Amino acid sequence: MMEHAPQAEAFAASWIERLRPAATQIYFLRRRIATVAVIVLAASLFVHVMFGDNGMVVYKQKRSEYQQLRKQIVRVQQDNDYYTQQIQGLKSDRTAIEKEAREQLGYAKPGEYVYVPPKPAPAPANHSAKK
Q: Of 27, 91, 107, 131, which cross-links 101 as Cys (Cβ 3.0–4.6 Å)?
């Protein structure tokens, strides 16, 4: 067996020399494939973060909707407070009751006159053809 060792070494060295350019190309190709894979992974992650189910686009839309709803809540609460005050005034304040009766129902005290303006006359119908 020892007599075949130099031949085996020479055979292995010749195969190594033949495969070295192919191995070098595979090594550089492996680096390029890894680089392309990392770029594709980063791009897909970016697209997911920006346009995914909970991405930045959806986040901005939800944030805008939230701000609009908060403004609407504040407006409705102000309206509610106004109507609550008006109801309390009508329950307890005689002058508020009298004011509403005069304005909405046209009531007057004895000796007062209520002026009701006449309804405006309807505009004459224009039957001319439009150009």
A: 107
